[in-house]
Design goal:
Elements (H helix, E strand, L loop, with lengths): L1 H26 L11 H37 L20
Length: 95
């Protein structure tokens, strides 16, 4: 009985040690370097990045304009260029 328990303990310790060593080896393994990019690939990637940045900037500007318009609408801020709205008291016809 004691021999069986000792054997199970030895097996568990051996498996745990093997797992630890294997994970340590996996973490420290060096990956192969990717192939070097050609000039055409670099140019295409730069063009793609520039297009994505331009699109993101455009969407960001649209969102900011929408937020400003919403703020002005809900806060009652009147634009200097826009004509003032007529109030009911000024158009009632009483003098």
């Amino acid at each position: 009985m004691r021999k069986l328990a000792l054997w199970k303990l030895t097996l568990a310790i051996t498996l745990a040690a093997g797992l630890g060593v294997g994970s340590l080896a996996g973490v420290n393994a060096a990956l192969p370097k990717p192939p070097a990019k050609s000039e055409a690939d670099k140019a295409a990637e730069a063009e793609k990045a520039a297009a994505a940045k331009a699109k993101e900037t455009e969407l960001n500007n649209k969102a900011m304009d929408k937020a400003v318009a919403n703020y002005k609408k809900n806060k009652g801020i009147v634009d200097a260029k826009a004509p003032a709205k007529a109030t009911p008291a000024s158009t009632s016809g009483k003098k």
